[in-house]
Structures are given as C-alpha cells and as structure tokens.
Amino acid sequence: MRNSLSAIAILAPLLALSACGNPDTPGGRAADARHENFEALGDAFKTIGDELKAQAPDAQKVRAAAATVAAKAKDMPGWFPAGSGPDAGLKTDAKADVWTKPDEFRTVMTAFQDSSVKLLAAADGFAAGQPVVGLQEAVKQAGGTCKKCHDGFKTD
C-alpha cells in the first residue's frame, strides 16, 4: 500500500501535465506547465472574488490567494520559452505574438506583475483591518492588466 501511495504521489503531477495534451518534449512540457500555472492564477482570482462577495470575507484566504497571484506573476516570464508556442504545433491559448512581439508582451506582463504586487499589499492591508475598498480597487486594476494581456496575446 505504501509503495502504491508513493507511486501516486510521484506520478500525479506528471499525469496532470500530460493531460493537457501536448507531446512530452521541452516545449510541450512548458506549454502544459504554463496552462497549469494559469489555472492556479484563475483559481486564486476566483477565491478573492468569492471572498469579496461574501458577507464576511476571510482576510486570510484573500491574503493567501493574493500571495499566489504575486508569486505566479513573478515567475511568469519563464513560462514562455522558445518552442512552447503555436508555431511549434502545440496546444496552447498563447498567440504567436507572445514570441513575435516580445517587447509588447513584456510591457503587459510587467504591468500585471506590478499590479499583483499592489494586490498583495492591498490584501495585507485588508488582513490588517483596512477598509475593503482598497482591496477592491487593487483587484480591479489587476483584472484590467489580465484583460489587456488576454486581449492581445491569448486566443479566444
């Protein structure tokens, strides 16, 4: 039984990545990992949104989710290596523009990274008892930077 659990613990992350449908190549693994990272970002934003809709938002849940957003945003530049885009024949929602217009992409990514730092600061403030309005504004700004990237660099 112990060996079965150990095997599951080792194989589960690999199976999750292979479930995205790309080949087991460096580019395919990068595209699948990118997808999983964006799923985690979406889950974190959903947690924040759900908490802000609650009668009594859980500040610690909001803070943890904002920390996830900030950490993922910081790591994001490494999610788009050469050979992990649609030109490599991979299943991805990223447009080729990510790689063909790197300066524009870097600009919108940097805006998201900056807004994620502000989101975390606002979540810290909310957890320390500051009014929710600062957090709401930070969420709105971070969401706006997400939308700008989606509009220019993600397929529908």
Automatic annotation (TrEMBL):
Keywords: Electron transport, Heme, Iron, Metal-binding, Signal, Transport
The keyword Signal is annotated on this UniProt entry: yes
InterPro entries: Cyt_c/b562 (IPR010980), Cyt_c_II (IPR002321), Cyt_c_prime (IPR012127)
One Pfam family matching this protein: Cytochrom_C_2
PROSITE patterns cross-referenced by the UniProt entry: CYTCII, PROKAR_LIPOPROTEIN
Residues annotated as signal peptide: 1-18
Protein name: Cytochrome c
Originating organism: Novosphingobium aquae
